[in-house]
Structure to design on (224 residues):
C-alpha cells in the first residue's frame, strides 16, 4: 500500500539556521503531496502542497518540490524562527490520505 | 468564518463503553473525513463521508461507524471501546463550494482516554 517515510526527530536548530526535513513516499500512482504543521495542543494546518511532478509548494518561507524520480518531497526553510517549533507531517493523497509519523522541530533562540 | 469545530474537546470512557464524537465542517465544505492520531504518530484515516454516505474507509474495524447529516456535520461512533482506542480523533473537511476535495482543513480534535 501507499506509505510516507519521514526523518525521525526531534530536529533541534538555532534561530536563523537552515531547515531540511526529509520525506519520501511510495505510491502506486501519482499522488498529490502535502506538508502539514501541528502546533502544541492544536489540530493540523496545511502548510503547502504540490499536485504534480516538479511542482514547488511554498508558504511562510517554507518550500518543497515534488520529485517523481526520487519519490521525495523534502521540506526546506532558509531561516527558521522560534515560532516554527512544531511537529511537521508529510502526507500523500491518492485514494486514501496517508500521513508520515511526523518530525518534531525545536528551534532555540 | 468558523473553521472546523469538534466536540467534546476531551472525553474519558471505560472499556466496553460506546462514544460519539461530533464535527462541524468549515463553511462551504461538503466532505468530512475522520482520523485517529495515537500519541507520537501521524493521523490514520478512518473514513470519509460525502452526501451522507461513507465514500472511503481505512483499515479500521466495524466498531468504528459514522454518520453525516444534511447540514454536512458528522458523527463518529466507536462501540465496545478498547484501551487501544485512546487517541486524538481529528475531523477534517474539504470540497464543496469552499475548496477542493484533496485540500483538507482540520479541527482541533477530541482527545479520548479509555480506562
Amino acid at each position: 500500500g501507499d506509505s510516507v517515510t519521514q526523518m525521525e526527530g526531534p530536529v533541534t536548530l538555532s534561530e536563523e539556521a537552515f531547515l531540511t526535513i526529509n520525506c519520501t513516499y511510495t505510491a502506486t500512482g501519482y499522488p498529490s503531496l502535502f506538508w502539514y504543521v501541528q502546533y502544541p495542543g492544536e489540530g493540523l494546518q496545511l502548510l503547502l502542497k504540490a499536485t504534480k511532478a516538479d511542482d514547488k509548494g511554498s508558504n511562510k518561507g517554507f518550500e518543497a518540490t515534488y520529485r517523481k524520480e526520487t519519490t521525495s518531497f523534502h521540506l526546506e526553510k532558509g531561516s527558521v524562527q522560534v515560532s516554527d517549533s512544531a511537529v511537521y507531517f508529510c502526507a500523500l493523497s491518492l485514494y486514501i490520505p496517508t500521513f508520515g509519523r511526523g518530525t518534531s522541530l525545536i528551534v532555540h533562540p | 468564518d468558523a473553521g472546523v469545530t469538534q466536540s467534546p474537546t476531551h472525553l474519558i470512557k471505560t472499556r466496553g463503553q460506546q462514544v460519539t464524537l461530533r464535527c462541524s465542517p468549515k463553511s462551504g465544505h461538503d466532505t468530512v473525513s475522520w482520523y485517529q492520531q495515537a500519541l507520537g504518530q501521524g493521523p490514520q484515516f478512518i473514513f470519509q463521508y460525502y452526501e451522507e454516505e461513507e465514500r472511503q474507509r481505512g483499515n479500521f474495524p466495524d466498531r468504528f461507524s459514522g454518520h453525516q447529516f444534511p447540514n454536512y456535520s458528522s458523527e463518529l461512533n466507536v462501540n465496545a471501546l478498547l484501551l487501544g482506542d485512546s487517541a486524538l480523533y481529528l475531523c477534517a473537511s474539504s470540497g464543496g463550494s469552499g475548496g477542493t476535495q484533496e485540500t483538507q482543513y482540520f479541527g482541533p480534535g477530541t482527545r479520548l482516554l479509555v480506562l
Notes: The interface with chain A takes residues 4, 33, 35, 40-45, 56, 58, 90, 92, 102-109 of chain B (CB under 8 Å). Chain B has no helices and eleven strands. The radius of gyration of chain B is 13 Å. The CA atoms of residues 20 and 89 of chain B lie 11 Å apart.
